[in-house]
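2024-03-11 09:14:02 INFO worker-7 job=invfold-0412 stage=load source=structure_tokens
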């Protein structure tokens, strides 16, 4: 075996042996790892700076085993008592997405990708031979999910602001007239946080026959719902299903996703709170995600979530001003928490743990992104630019 293909073996001291290892020694290892990570003085932008406070609220949940064998609306002999908590979370997110409890149902997942898989499966039901129309600026998880489900994917051009081009969608669907169309809109594109116009896309795809619009709002749903001018992104604007998330913005210690589907798209099911057959991607799932979301949302309230997002949007607008003054050419979709700018030298990217894509760098103003943090990063961007010029 060549060195290039040799496996990367774990540290000998971490190997899992035949006999149990001393628990006290392993606990010390974990504590050393925690201290090493905690001592790292490099800021981790976009990661919740209030995680210590959140963990104080959520720590008791980590001592629970919550195995949910069915969906939140289905009675089961294995009832853990967490179903009502999950339904409360779903009611909250359904309202954000512009639907009443009688119009949409869903479930909480262990990750946004699991929610996305469920949404795509539900959106495909009832269509003749649909292709899936995906923007070139959509998250790579969307294309990956389509591959896993064996769906034919058609890439659609994006406009300069990163939104899907309705004219190109019309052209692509016209070439496949009568086959039906599953359009995946994006609320919060990876680079610029752009939000596709659901109403426009649904109208553009109508030439293909029956249309279903699924919205991947994992990155931007919470922000869009709390913007001063709410963009046309949700169930209220013509979407049939939607994928949401909130673990990064809300500061959860583990991922969580939300899948919502219109009742009209799944007529055999009931509304929220009414028994429905299970159509879940997985047969057994943890109830921890729903409890984490419920605890955090209850501690903030709707007013607290709105205020938190307003602070993040203010930081984003301030960052655009400061980065522009630093000569970094920032770009931001209206009300987005994502800012892209010219990629700085490696010493700046490493110091601030910046996410970089080709010639661009990206930050999201969640977590610890205060005006002071923005000023410090802008100072480094300005110094790097002056150094390059010199």
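2024-03-11 09:14:09 INFO worker-7 stage=emit residues=390
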């Amino acid at each position: 075996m060549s060195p290039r293909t040799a496996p990367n073996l774990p540290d000998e001291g971490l190997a899992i042996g035949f006999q149990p290892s001393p628990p006290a020694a392993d606990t010390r290892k974990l504590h050393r790892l925690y201290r090493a990570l905690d001592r790292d003085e490099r800021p981790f932008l976009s990661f919740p700076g209030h995680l210590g406070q959140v963990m104080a609220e959520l720590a008791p949940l980590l001592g629970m085993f919550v195995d949910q064998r069915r969906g939140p609306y289905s009675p089961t002999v294995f009832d853990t008592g967490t179903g009502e908590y999950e339904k409360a979370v779903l009611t909250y997110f359904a309202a954000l997405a512009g639907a009443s409890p009688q119009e949409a149902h869903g479930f909480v997942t262990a990750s946004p990708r699991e929610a996305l898989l469920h949404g795509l499966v539900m959106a495909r039901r009832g269509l003749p031979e649909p292709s899936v129309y995906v923007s070139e600026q959509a998250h790579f998880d969307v294309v990956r999910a389509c591959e896993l489900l064996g769906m034919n994917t058609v890439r659609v051009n994006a406009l300069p602001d990163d939104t899907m081009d309705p004219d190109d969608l019309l052209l692509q669907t016209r070439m496949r007239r009568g086959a039906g169309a599953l359009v995946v809109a994006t609320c919060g594109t990876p680079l610029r946080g752009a939000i596709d116009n659901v109403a426009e896309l649904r109208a553009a795809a109508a030439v293909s026959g029956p249309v279903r619009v699924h919205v991947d709002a994992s990155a931007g749903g919470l922000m869009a719902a709390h913007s001063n001018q709410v963009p046309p992104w949700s169930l209220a604007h013509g979407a049939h299903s939607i994928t949401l998330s909130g673990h990064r913005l809300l500061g959860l210690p583990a991922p969580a996703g939300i899948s919502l589907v219109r009742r009209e798209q799944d007529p055999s099911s009931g509304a929220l709170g009414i028994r429905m057959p299970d159509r879940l991607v997985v047969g057994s799932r943890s109830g921890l995600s729903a409890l984490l979301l419920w605890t955090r949302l209850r501690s903030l309230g709707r007013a607290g979530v709105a205020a938190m997002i307003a602070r993040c949007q203010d930081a984003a607008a301030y960052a655009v001003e400061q980065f522009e003054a630093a000569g970094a050419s920032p770009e931001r979709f209206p009300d987005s928490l994502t800012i892209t700018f010219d990629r700085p030298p490696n010493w700046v990217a490493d110091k601030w743990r910046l996410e970089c894509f080709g010639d661009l760098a990206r930050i999201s103003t969640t977590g610890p992104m205060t005006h002071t943090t923005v000023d410090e990063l802008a100072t480094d961007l300005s110094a790097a630019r002056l150094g390059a010029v010199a």
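2024-03-11 09:14:09 INFO worker-7 stage=report msg="The CA atoms of residues 197 and 357 lie 25 Å apart."
2024-03-11 09:14:10 INFO worker-7 job finished
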